[in-house]
Amino acid sequence: MKARVYVMPKAGVLDPQGKAIGHALEGLGFGGVHDVRAGKVIELDLAEADPAQAKKIAEDMARKLLANTVIESFRVEIV
Amino acid sequence: MKAAIIVFPGTNRERDMRLALKRASGREPAMLFHREAALPKGLDLVVLPGGFSYGDYLRCGAMAAQSPIMRAVKDFAAAGGHVLGVCNGFQIMIEAGLLPGGLLRNATLRFLSMDCRLRVERAGTAFTAHWQQGDCFRAPMAHGDGNYFADDATLDRLEGEGLVTFRYVDEAGKATEAANRNGSARNIAGVLSPNLRVCGLMPHPEDLVDPLMGGEDGLPMFQSLAERLVAA
């Protein structure tokens, strides 16, 4: 079972990387970009065959290591 | 003072730290590799030095925080042991949950390698006893992710309980925005645990402990530790 973990800077936490990307887009002539937030995606190939159980395992992994929940939020998607 | 420095893959300046501890206490600290599962008996101080442990993979300090030795360091801290973390060591402490908050990418996105000025916000601890409250001193810094973050309730608690150790200040000793180059919340450069025995900070006091290094501005931290932890 494959799981995808999306890790994003929490709302309200400064994301200088996203800001810099926004500035670069502006420099390329892309207008109308209100805000850019940059996070990461982590793909897991899990032995667990049950989707609900796999999601639980991935969420546990995210809480313990993949995301720092002080500054980041995460979302798990089973694919 | 019996001290140990933890060495992770990618650690650096651990030799500067050894020099600082030796110079202040007269005793050579032990160097421990991250794979060790236990700390030597009778330690007074554990130091997590700077560097780029595990290549800063995932998040700065995130991998090191999960290494076998960190379980022992957490137990040591929980039992009332003194722990100092500098730069990447501070990031590891945060990731290990030894200190609150988070360290984000510097607000300018630039790696900062320069001297900064720090103001002592909490004198009288084992880390700051050789300074007076409000003393300012020079400290080198070298980091890309030193932008201290915590929610307002946590920041209020840290300030209310006197757990902010150091703040970034200008030449006049004022905590201005310009002096706060990495964008840290409320100019915070270092924080303490509630029992005042765990201290983490981004700048490197161990890099100014000998006239040959260009100054001894950071020496009081190690003199404080040597004096306090001998008496303990």
Topology at a glance:
The complex is a heterodimer of chains A (79) and B (232).
Chain A: E1 2-9, H1 16-27, E2 40-45, H2 51-66, E3 72-78
Antiparallel strand pairs in A: 1-2, 1-3
Chain B: E1 3-7, H1 14-25, E2 30-33, E3 45-48, H2 68-78, E4 82-86, H3 88-95, E5 102-104, E6 112-120, E7 136-143, E8 147-149, H4 152-160, E9 164-169, E10 188-192, E11 198-201, H5 219-231
Parallel strand pairs in B: 1-2, 1-3, 3-4, 4-11
Antiparallel strand pairs in B: 5-8, 6-7, 6-9, 9-10, 10-11
Features:
heterodimer; A: 79 residues; alpha+beta; three-stranded antiparallel β-sheet; 2 helices; 3 strands; 35% helix; 27% strand; B: 232 residues; alpha/beta; nine-stranded mixed β-sheet; two-stranded antiparallel ribbon; 5 helices; 23% helix; 24% strand; globular
- How much helix is in the residues of chain B? 10-25%
What is the overall shape of chain B? globular
N- to C-terminal distance of chain A: 7 Å
- Number of distinct helices of chain B: 5
H and E order of chain A: EHEHE
Give the biggest beta sheet of chain A. Answer: 3 strands, antiparallel
Task: Quote the beta fraction of chain B.
Answer: 15-25%
Give the overall silhouette of chain A.
Answer: elongated
What does the radius of gyration of chain B come to? 16 Å
Uncertain segments of chain A are none
Low-confidence stretches of chain B: none
**Which chain pair has the greatest contact?**
A-B, 11 and 19 residues
Q: Helices and strands of chain B, in N-to-C order?
A: EHEEHEHEEEEHEEEH
Structure description:
The complex is a heterodimer of chains A (79) and B (232). The longest helix of chain A has 16 residues, at 51-66. Chain A has 79 residues and is of the alpha+beta class. Chain A has helices at 16-27, 51-66; strands at 2-9, 40-45, 72-78. In chain A, 15% of the residues are buried. Chain A contains two helices and three strands; from the N terminus they run E-H-E-H-E. Chain B is α/β, with parallel strands linked by helices. Chain B starts with a strand and ends with a helix. Chain B has a nine-stranded mixed β-sheet, with helices on both faces. In chain B, strands 5-8 form a two-stranded antiparallel sheet. In chain B, strand 10 and strand 11 form a beta hairpin. Chains A and B meet through helix 1 of A and loops of B.
